Amino acid sequence: MSHDRRESGFKRRTRVAEARATLLDAVAPHDRRESVPVDAADGRVVAEPIDAPAPVPGYDRAAMDGYAVRASDTFGAGDRSPAVLAAKAAGADAVAPGEAARVHTGSAVPDGADAVVMIEQVETVGDDVEVFDAVATGENVGEAGEDVADGQRLYEAGHVLRPSDLGLLRSVGLDSVPVREPPEVAVIPTGEELVESDPGPGEVIETNGLTVSRLVERWGGEPRYRDVVTDDHAALREAVAADLDADVVVTTGGSSVGERDLLPEVVDDLGEVLVHGVALKPGHPVCLGRAEGTPIVSLPGYPVACIVNAAQFLRPAMKRAAGTDADPFPTRRATLDRKVASEPGVRTFARVSVSDEDGGDDALPTATPTRASGSGILSSVALADGWVVVPEPREGIDAGEPVDVELWEVTP
Q1: Residue 166: inside a domain, yes or no?
Q2: Does residue 57 have a cis bond before it (omega within 30 degrees)?
Q3: C-alpha angle 118/146/167, rounded to 5°?
Q4: Quick one: 15 and 120 in the same domain?
Q5: Of the candidates 266, 294, 321, which is a domain's last residue?
Q6: Where in the sequence is the domain holding 45, given as residue range(s)?
Q7: Quick one: what percent of the chain has pLDDT higher than 90?
Q8: Single pTM value for the model
Q9: Is residue 412 a part of any domain in this protein?
């Protein structure tokens, strides 16, 4: 796509789903991998299929406290005519016909035994036990491999490990797991007005790079948080080119069509602009491109627009680079207490706070818009609990309507 901001402007704005799909087509999963201890693998992406090297449990085990027996020795046993068996102490290796060995929940069932009588159905009389309930073969016994079979496929490549997964991996005897290295994301804030502190007239403290870098970490990546680059074509080109070895390059600011919005031209100079201008509010002047095989996401400079676009484009690009897909954000059902306006054909992200106050037991919480507009008002998103997405076909959402609030900061 040859790009000229002075002529093109935003005559056509690509829909969000199409823009995201176009970007993801330009992202190739990296092939870097490492082995990490199981206890440090939470949230990591599995690099290759994992099979169980051993069954769980590795032996037949008692599912109840009681006595391990041969089921045939209990046939016909009842309250009036108990089966009388010779008692053996806990830890016995084997049970012969007519014998019963004390077992505890989880302990190995002795050789020869094929069932466990619950302790409540047994009475000790001298060196014998009286069994008052007949048991069937396999009753109250967990067979070897009942939980996990030997060689069972546990996880495919691309699975994102959770705490419960780590427990399962440890249970089959694994101490380490092969995972993909976190995707490396170069974060380049741009703008001649940006300063680190003590802004003077016309200056702004740099926040987008910081926010995006921390989002990269939360989403499972390793950020390269760079110094601010001024609005100069040569300087911007040099900065972006220097980080094309990253899995994703993301810039903040300079993505629109003004005289100082040079990033689309820089991307076009280095490679190709894939999308410029998305039917999204806030933040339609996002630019998506590629250079030397590296996807480039140029986010708008307004803080709220920057965050919204990072969630919609940078996050899925990072996940794809890591060999997986971005799960949908969790949602919370609520009732909108004020109307949210939206332009037909544009996907709108309305920031809301959620409150449970004054609701009955069955009442939905209330979602209150923190601000209907203003993509430069950082507090409107920082003080919000999430956002309500108004899809393209709708012309807003009326007050009193149930909505799903996307909790975009809750999960990776």
Answers
A1: yes
A2: yes
A3: 105
A4: no
A5: 321
A6: 40-55+150-180
A7: 80
A8: 0.84
A9: no
